[in-house]
Amino acid sequence: MFPCRGSLAFTQEAGANEAADLEQVAVLAWGLRQQDSERALQLAHEVLAQVPLSDLADEVRNGIQARMRLVQAEVALLGMRLDEAQGLLDQAELDFSALQDLRGLCDLHWLRHYVAADRGQAECLRQGLETAIELAERVGDGERLLLLQLTLARSELFRDQMVANHTWDARLPRSTEGLSPACAAAVADYRGLQCGLSSEFAPAAQWLIEAYRWSVASGQLRRALSVASNLGYTYTSMSDYAQAVEWLQRGLSLARESGWPGSLSLALAQTGDAMRRIGQLSAARELLLECQALLAAHPHNRSAMLALKYLSEIELDLQENESALQHFQLLAERAQSVDSKDMHTDAALGQARALLRLRRLAEAREAALHAREVAQQQRERSTLVDILWTLAEIGQAEGQSPEAVLPWLQQALAQAERLPGYCTPPALLESAAAAHAARGDFSAAYQLSQRASEVRQQVFTEESGKQAAVLHVQHQVERARAEQEHLRQLAQAESARSQALQSLHTVLLHLGESGKEITAQLNVGRVLAVLQRHVEELLQSSRLSFFLLDERGEWLECALGCLDAATAGARIAVSDAQHECVRALRSRTELMIEGQRMVAPLQVADRVIGVMRVIGLQAQSFGEREQLVFRNLCAYAAVAMDNAKAYEKLGELQRQVAAQEKMASIGQLAAGVAHEINNPIGFVNSNLGTLARDVGSLLALVQAYREACGESASAEQRQRAQTLEQALDLAFLAEDLPQMIHESIDGLQRVKRIVQDLRSFSRVDASDWLYADLNEGIESTLNMLMHEIRYKAQVRKELSPLPAVYCLAAQINQVLMNLLVNAGHAIERDGLILIRSWVDGAWACVSVRDNGCGMAAEVMKRIFEPFFTTKPVGQGTGLGLSLSFSIIQKHKGRIDVDSAPGQGTCFTLRLPVQGPDSVVA
């Protein structure tokens, strides 16, 4: 878990080589994560960038990626960025689990326990370590197993010292001999802490000094900082303030160099306590407040609770008893929530002292007795001295007799004398002497007074020698504080820069994915929907407006989100030079207005197709990051919208081609049919003419025979002729037969005209541009549709003479047919269709007006859209007017519509007489 310095130096030399493989660099990054966390993080980023491009096996690649996420997680953890660390650990867990990498999972859960520790989550801490221990046992890694067991045992000491000693004391090594540097540091750290919590301060200091040496050797800088702070606390408890300040200063300097909030906060807390004990209350309070500020987001962190404890004791020293009581009560709540017994003892003792000074004696006694019970369970013998002494003071304040008070003082003295390296406070000796004197035992009182004087003289002598060192250290502390402030500001600036780069990296990744999704859409509606979603994700608290430039370049048509005060209508005139969207369009530059509005043109190569705008919900919503995002979204939107429009036009052209091919096929069929029936019609027509002539002649002959034979015929012949004439009804035949033949000839003439109109309409033989008579086209189209219109409306024509128009006659006939069919559909019965034609300069004009149902304004806006129809499903395709519009555009003409509900509709066509090339753009 922590490579020794020798192997790490070798790996560094190999990693410096450009040809070093990724596995070597990954090992180096893992080994440097505490010794040089910035370098480790840089290496991790490089490895993660190169691994996907390497030719390593998938299993090896995934393993390296997961290990580098552990490096990133530990660096984030050291910086107290706990949420970031948790997220990285979650990612790494997925990878390690997929690979079934038990060592990786073991290291991962070891880091999880640190996250829980910094958050004060005792149960999660224990679960993380127990899971890591189980994994180390499964993989058979003895060094990892020992290191994890020592870590769990150390944490259990703070939770319940007696249980921890019973569980771990015999199972763990009592010497560092033969152990790796990492395990040796952990063993010495555990044993030193065990002795310190049992008030065995001299052996505790020896163990901790060894732990510090091994921690530095193994690259465990976090442990080294913790050990230095605990050494300071140990020497403070032994009243050796010079040594205490020396170690605290060493730890504080290391912590400031590292820039790690967790380690720095512990050093600040322990140094603050030492400063309090030498009477520098103001300086101590500043250090402790700085510690609390660093851990404001993590109040259950142990360093935060230490700072709260020491700050409460300063308030007792300053007679701020009410505030001290409140803080000790808060400390008790936090200690209870994380199940920290030693903190619970200190909180109870502090409450007893504060309550004593507030003269709330019954509550003070109850708190002190509770503190004694917990201290005895935890074997906190030095703390027990203070608790017993406090109980004696409470008894004196309650007015108890010397006989009742003295046992507490005697227990306190006995406890103090049993502590190796502990200097019995002279004030305690003097309190015991006063109690003996009060009960008349002057001999014992004298002896205790003498001891108090000797101890005070000894302390004075030692303190005199140490005072100069203490003053020097104090000066160094002040100097270090100034340096620390400078370093802290630098660290903050670097942290802000790192966070900004990380944020920018995340945004760029998101932008890349957004660009892929936006530009993949080939439908205008989908482009707008996807764009709006990404604007909401990347530019929170903003409203999007999207405008497209119309084909003539006269209007910005609103396509999305225009319901705001700055855009009164659904479109903006390009001539409105004051409008922010028009200014962006004309200048082709991005505009930032009051930090709240961003407007930019949508450009594709040299073309501008529209404008995009976002509006923040409050002032100064947007900065450089938002401008970068907006600029890229505009580029993606422009490309996507241009593609969607092109795809839409392609689809429309395909539909038009299909419709035209269909019409051509119908025309070819009609022409074929007309050709096939034209000859039989000619034959029938010729035969009917001959028949009419011959029938007339035959009837004339019959009449002549009647007249010639009338006188000379016999009676019998006349009778037979008369009978036959009556049977044939010769008079009727003579009158009706010529009429029938005449009607048949008329019918054939009409069929002939229809065939001629059908051929004229289809124009199979006229697919090229030619000069055509529009009036003739109107007539032929009417002949084709008369059977459909005659039962609904009367058709009135007001056709003026027109010059021949250069056009595609078949397509113009198709337009006329669509307009007449729509006019017929708009009329239920007894209607009127008026068809007019006239000349307007170089334009030939045709209008088709009906008095049918009419259209609303919103319908008129969409009638030329492909597939838009107001007819029931199955009764219309929605392509007729769209195709008509395209045909007129092809001729560079115009088609206008005027309509209102209940007032009928009028379509007006304007075609250039000399064809589209004569129209000036």
Automatic annotation (TrEMBL):
UniProt xrefs under Pfam families: GAF_3, HATPase_c
A GO MF label: phosphorelay sensor kinase activity
SUPFAM superfamilies: ATPase domain of HSP90 chaperone/DNA topoisomerase II/histidine kinase, GAF domain-like, Homodimeric domain of signal transducing histidine kinase, TPR-like
TPR repeats: 225-258
Domain of life of the native organism: Bacteria
Record-listed E.C. numbers: 2.7.13.3
Keyword Repeat: no
Recorded catalytic activity of this chain's protein: ATP + protein L-histidine = ADP + protein N-phospho-L-histidine
Keywords: Phosphoprotein, TPR repeat
Segments forming domain Histidine kinase: 672-915
UniProt cross-references to SMART domains, sorted A to Z: HATPase_c, HisKA, TPR
InterPro entries reported for this sequence: GAF, GAF-like_dom_sf, HATPase_C_sf, HATPase_dom, His_kinase_dom, HisK_dim/P_dom, HisK_dim/P_sf, Sig_transdc_His_kin-like_C
PANTHER family: HISTIDINE KINASE, SENSOR HISTIDINE KINASE
Protein name as catalogued: histidine kinase
